[in-house]
Amino acid sequence: MKRFLFLCLLSTLHAETRDLILVAGQSNAVGFDAYATELPADDSDKDVMFWWRVGDPPPDEHDVTSGGKWTTLQPQPKGSPKEKNNGARQYGNFAKAEGGFGPEIGFAREMKAKEGKPLAIIKAAFSGTAVAKDWNPDDPGIGGSCYRALVETVKSAVTAAKAQNIELKFRALVWVQGESDATPAYAPLYTKNLAHLITRLRSDLAAPELIALIGVNTRFGNGKNANMPLVIESQKAVDAQDPLAVYVDTEGAETLPPNHTHFTAKGTLEIGRRYAVALLGFKPGQASTNPPKGEPTNAAEAAAQKAKADAEVEAKYQALVSKLPADQQAWERVLQDQLGGFYLPIHKREKISNRSSAWDFVQDDPKLPRVLLIGDSVSRGYTQAVRKVLAGKVNVHRAPANCGPTASGLKNIEVWLGGGKWDLIHFNFGIHDRATPIADYQQRLEQLVERMKKTGAELVWASSTPCPDTKNGQYKSAPILERNTEAAEVMKKHGIAIDDLFTAITPHLATMQNPDDVHFTAQGYDFLGETVAKAIEAALK
How far is Cα 324 from Cα 332, in angstroms, rounded to an integer? Predict the structure, then answer.
């Protein structure tokens, strides 16, 4: 009897172990046109643990999920996206009411047939998403929302498995994406952006040996999208430069006519099988199973040259910083922590080139008032103009970041305020809060105001500048109007002056704002800077 009890106790102490596969990307990872009724039955599906979240950008309550629990491998139901005229980029996760499935099923069936090992799959995929504007690990706002959803979903699922005494071992990422990055603006950045996403994912999940299986619908655009070849070559370049990345060729897998944007059920099963074959054939340290030829080799060489150039910039920057006074070195350390993967390289290049920027160290004149500017990239754009107008009158400082949404403000406000005394704080949050529920926006704004009031500084709120209504739905004007109205109520309650940049710049948008963009021309930033400077001078009197 004692021996039996000992063996029972021993069995509970030893957790079940499963390889963990992550599935992520856009609509072909979701399985938009892979209809559930066209999926052949397979008893092996019930042996696969499955946790999932699929929907539209940004991730929200309209996504469909496994209910925050582990299930078995199965098609997923259709979600309930907003009406398209009430929100941007609402595509729906699946084309039909019956729902559908992604490459996870073909992948799992091939792995089961070849290895017979128990698997766990976590899927987080969102239709119509680009790495550049939805999966950016460095963007605390909507631009990084899909990446954060992936990481949060994985961590929740892994924790739940541990509670069931199941140990999950990270094995591979199945990445099916790239179509939405096939634009003139995003395609040239795709190699860098995808490589950075993979690197950050390994770091954020503490999975340094995670194999990245990357692919895209090579027929997207039906031969008419001039940017697709660059996206494909970029994926091959990541394969060439990352020893744990493998490009998976999807050419020939069945797609749905007439536009061939998505794989059919048959095609989706096939690409899942191909991803599994790529993983089964992968050996650490081996040459790529898809060695780049011609232009891909050039892309890899270009990546190597860029890495060398980046290393040279880093060496020059560190040498320069090492010679700075202690207070300036401290400022540079703050910038290194706060600027992120987009702005920090720009800052380093500007620094070693001795070019002035919004994030210059400010040596205070003790006779002059100290003013802090807090805001996003629009605020960054007018910082230098404010300094120019107020030179000799005010010490104009800038928060060491693109301050992003109110959520980022709450997280970083102590760093931005620093340890000095401020006479005035000119601040804005709004453009990066376009998708933040109004109630949350109002509550976070209240918290930020309360914290800044404790500094004893005079506070000036800057209304958010206009967003255009773009044809692709990236920007809408209405959310800015709604948030400016809510912010005005908060400021009225607290007796805070308003610098109404929205009203000031609106008559000049045709000549001062970039087309289909929230940012401004040099003339526009000068105008905004002069407007901000006047508001600061008025508040300091």
Answer: 10
Q: Where are the beta strands (DSSP E) in 350-445?
A: 370-374, 395-398, 424-427
CA distance from start to end of the chain: 88
Digit-coded pLDDT (tens) for 184-240:
889 989 999 999 999 999 999 999 999 999 999 999 988 788 889 999 999 998 988
Strand partners, 323: none
SS3 track for 276-333: HHHHHCCCCCCCCCCCCCCHHHHHHHHHHHHHHHHHHHHHHHHHHHHCCCHHHHHHHH
- Report whether 540 contacts 424 (CB < 8 A): yes
User: CA of 118: how far to CAs of 29, 108, 349, in Å?
Assistant: 22, 9, 49
DSSP string, 170-198: EEEEEEE--GGG-STTTGGGHHHHHHHHH
Q: Tell me the torsion sign for CA atoms 529, 534, 538, 541.
A: positive
Joined together, the tokens standing for residue 404 give: 């992003």
Q: How far apart are CA 263 and CA 224, in angstroms?
A: 18
Beta-carbon contacts of 487 under 8 Å, excluding residues fewer than 6 positions away, are 429, 430, 441, 445, 461, 463, 464
Question: 0.70 exceeded by the pTM?
Answer: no
Structure confidence at residue 1 (pLDDT): 42
- Quote the distance between the C-alpha of residue 161 and its chain's center: 26
CA-based radius of gyration for the chain: 26
With beta carbons less than 8 A apart as the criterion, state whether 361 and 329 touch. no
**Beta bridge partner(s), residue 23:** 123, 174
Contact 56, 90 (CB under 8 A): yes
List average pLDDT for each run of 10 residues in the chain, which is 541 residues long. Answer: 40 73 96 93 95 89 91 90 51 77 97 93 95 92 92 96 95 97 90 94 92 95 85 91 91 89 95 94 58 40 66 92 95 93 83 88 96 95 95 97 93 94 97 92 96 97 92 82 97 97 95 84 91 97 88
Alpha helices in 46-189 (DSSP H): 104-114, 131-134, 145-163
